[in-house]
Amino acid sequence: MAQPHKPDTDTNTILRNQLITLLQKSEAHQSLDAAIKNLPAELRGVKPENLPYSIWQLIDHIRLVQWDILEFSRNADYQSPPWPEGYWTKQVQPPDNSAWQQALDQIQQDRDAFIALLADPEWDLFQPFAHGDGQNLLREALLIADHTAYHVGEIIIIRRLLNAWPR
Fold this sequence. Notes:
By secondary structure, the protein is mainly α. It has helices at 11-24, 32-36, 55-74, 97-119, 137-161. The protein has a single domain, classed as Up-down Bundle (Four Helix Bundle (Hemerythrin (Met), subunit A)). The chain contains 5 helices and no strands. This is DUF664 domain-containing protein.
């Protein structure tokens, strides 16, 4: 049975903590780290028949979108790349292992930077950004989580199609 809401509970802090947990952990689905764990390097750039993207293209897309959301949230002067070409690499495979690792590192660093915004009580979760058209920090946090989870599912499907997902 659910506990009744206590009037002295800081709902804002609870929500912030829940959002941070949502971005840091996988509770109802696989994490990005789990989706790419032990992925053979030679499969990063394989695009299965009838699918539009390789795992590399999905990783780079996750990186670009999360960076875009972070910059939009914290920088009123930021201009998003053109859609869709600014959000999808045409390279089917990473140029090298370094590019792969740099993309993964940036995903983690940008996630940490966004989490820092969520953890800072000076950032209002609900106040629309003055430079947007109704977006706020809460919406952007949910967008990162939702968008990443969607594409993590696609990565897992590609791995299954390539017989490269652990049973």
